Amino acid sequence: MSTHNVWTHKGTFLLAAVGSAVGLGNLWRFPYLTGENGGGAFILVYALTIFAVGIPILIAETMLGRASRRSPIMGMRHLTRTHHASRAWESIGWLGASSAFLILSFYSVIAGWAIHYTWQMLTGSLTGADAETIGAGFDALLASPGLLTLYHTLFIIASGLIVGMGIHRGIESSLRIMMPSLFVILLVVLAYGIANGDIGAAASFLFTFNLADLSLEGWLQAMGQSFFTLSLGMGAIMAYGAYMSSEASLTRTAIAIAVVDTAVAMVAGLAIFSLVFGAGLGPGQGPGLMFVTLPLAFAEMPFGALIGGVFFILVLGAAISSSISLIEPVAAFLVERFDLTRPQAVTLMVVASWALGLLTVTSFNVWAEGTLFHALFGRSAFDLIELLTNIFMPLGGLLIALFAGWALTHSEVMKEMRTSEAWFTVWRFLVRFVAPAAVAFVFLRSIPQVEGYLIPTIGALVIVGAFAAGRTFLVEPSQEP
Ligand code: PHE
pTM for this structure? Predict the structure, then answer.
């Protein structure tokens, strides 16, 4: 059964996909990864991956959604049937649903930190505080399972309420208010950074490229980040694509999403580093960059409490517009498959993911180390869940690229893309060969035993595998169904 829902406007898919893409990945993860990896060179690799791999897969994933007009799992089931492809490709849907579930569980915990800091900023409790106090405050937050659980709960309930209200009344209407406000706030923070910080130092840190600065690990992180930030490989984009108007241009929309998402990351990076450098602080603080270094910069600046509060509201809004896209694919599946009502489906997903999130909560305090869990998996639950999503997302992206590249027929793709034959050829070359090889690199990052020299070999294997996939599992692309 298909839901046959379509967004109210031609442009809503763009709005929703940008809402999904712009999130903690842009405001929190991108700046700290860039800071840890020496700046410009990291950004160069990140941007190249977005354009050579991200956009083609974005087009592919949206196409699978729009062509099937179903939730990712049911959509892939439908497509494998209509294309006489192996049922194994349905794993794209299952992988996506599992990653969405896993990501939501920790995304909500981290977004919860922003609730804490919004409050701290607006009440002025950090004004004038020194580095030690602010650092200790962050540590105290992480040490408190009660507080973390409270914020995690608030955040996930808010996200669930939006999705529960449906794609029109809930998702569309909240995004229509939220997204423009977020862009305004981002520009306000940038202007504040220019006035009070050191924008010159920020710009030269971000845009001076020296590839020698970048380790192999940094390369792989940049590629992984470009996946995460575009919400690729896990069904969010496919679920939203299922509601996309048939008139909207896939290619143009995908490029617009990537450009806006990258622009937001760059502007956020400029604003944050300008404040950080202006306050004489260092860029390489890791995950604490936004929650320790940045509050410290705000603590020392005029109107810092107010702008800081507004900044964390921005973080919250961006996080919520992403977390709703993590709930939608799973909720839509439960509705289609088990005939649940939307509120029932959302509740099921959110409660389960909330419960799993408690493991992330305890990973920062009571079960931080020395537990049975550590003995079994050698890491905290949070690290394990993150590791799993780092495997599932690229794997999902790889399969999406292969399926769209090999199983969909020429005329189907042309109908969806509506571009020239030349663009079609470029796209298909990218999804058939370049994207799978590139994703294999990202994938290998999660397997620590694999040494650098093995990577080219595996890249080659992927290309051979792509041929095998095209021949074995799928109908010949020239055979129109
Ligand atoms: N793209 C989101 C961000 O940058 C994260 C996300 C990943 C959201 C996957 C949905 C799906 O924060």
Answer: 0.89
Q: Does some domain include residue 278?
A: yes
Full residue range of the structural domain in which residue 140 is found? 12-479
Amino acid 215: pLDDT: 76
User: Does 3 reside within a domain?
Assistant: no
Quick count: other Cβ atoms within 10 Å of Cβ 119?
A: 13
Q: Of ligand 1's atoms, which has the minimum distance to the CA of residue 326?
A: 10
Distance 111 CA to ligand 1 centre (A): 12
Tell me how far apart the alpha carbons of residues 365 and 254 are, in angstroms, rounded to a whole number. 41
CA distance 85 to 463: 20
The CB of 114 under 6 Å from ligand 1? The reply is: no
Q: Is residue 6 part of a domain?
A: no
Instruction: Name residues whose C-beta falls within 8 Å of residue 444's C-beta, 6 or more positions apart in sequence.
Output: 220, 450, 454, 455, 458
| pLDDT tens profile 401-419 | 999 998 888 888 888 888 8
CA of 323 to the centre of ligand 1 (A): 7
CB of 325 sitting under 6 A from ligand 1: yes
Distance 22 CA to ligand 1 centre (A): 7
Q: Which of 24, 50, 61, 228 to mutate to test the pocket of ligand 1 (most atoms within 8 A of CB)?
A: 228
Burial of 186: CB neighbours in 10 Å, binned 0-12, 13-18, 19+: buried
Residue 204 lies in a domain: yes
The structural domain count of the chain equals 1
What is the structure's pLDDT at 380? Answer: 81
Burial of 14 (0-12, 13-18, 19+ CB in 10 A): buried
pLDDT, averaged per 10 consecutive residues of the chain (481 residues), comes to 72 93 93 87 90 94 94 94 88 93 96 96 91 90 96 97 90 90 91 92 89 75 85 94 90 94 94 90 85 88 90 94 96 94 96 96 82 74 84 87 90 85 92 84 60 59 67 50 43
Nearest CA to ligand 1 atom 10: 231
CB atoms within 10 A of CB 449: 6
Domain harbouring 327, CATH code: 1.20.1740.10
Whether residue 182 has its Cβ less than 6 Å from ligand 1: no
Which of 20, 26, 29, 32 for mutating ligand 1's site (highest number of atoms within 8 Å of CB)?
A: 20
Q: What is the pLDDT of residue 93?
A: 94
